[in-house]
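S.,

Sequence below, as promised.
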Amino acid sequence: MYHSFVRPKWFTKKYIHDHVHSHFTFDGQTVLDFGAGTGANCSMFHPLNYVGIDPDAKRIEFARRLYPDHAFKVLESETFPFEDASFDYILIIAVLHHVSSNEISRYIKEIQRILKPDGTIIIMEPCLCKNKPLSNGFMKWYDNGEYIRHEEEYIQLFTDHNLECQVIKRFRKCFLYNELFFSVNSKSRLQPVTNN
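The prediction came back faster than expected:
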């Protein structure tokens, strides 16, 4: 049902994959799909370089059946089952608006641990916008995510952890959803090297 009506392949390609691929390349680089759900995003990546993780064991079981060549794990605690500095990219697509700020803060600490020093977090979330009451009202009514935020609130979640955010794009999805697409990096990565 979910794949047929909520996230059919053409919809996922148009509103997620095409946007991600227009800004990032993943050749030979390791990717963690945080909140992978039923695995709809795994087709963007080579199976050897991809791991999807989600706390919902039933969704992970379904993802394994749909995409047997890709790796999926159940997230059983707030500690991720990966070594330090394991991933070049961490993908977070339509996840944060389901998670409280306190929980996100704990997850970000783990994300910082498993992300390589020069790694990138890629995020796409529904976003509340000023002067768009119709869209905001529709998203709050239709979406089962309890924590749809304004752009500044999403950014603050990461800057509070000394991370640097860059908004890539703001776009409309199906007329009534406002989407925020941004990346996150370590501030030390963005600072110029100085010779003493």
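The domain at 28-189 is CATH 3.40.50.150 (Rossmann fold).

Coffee later?
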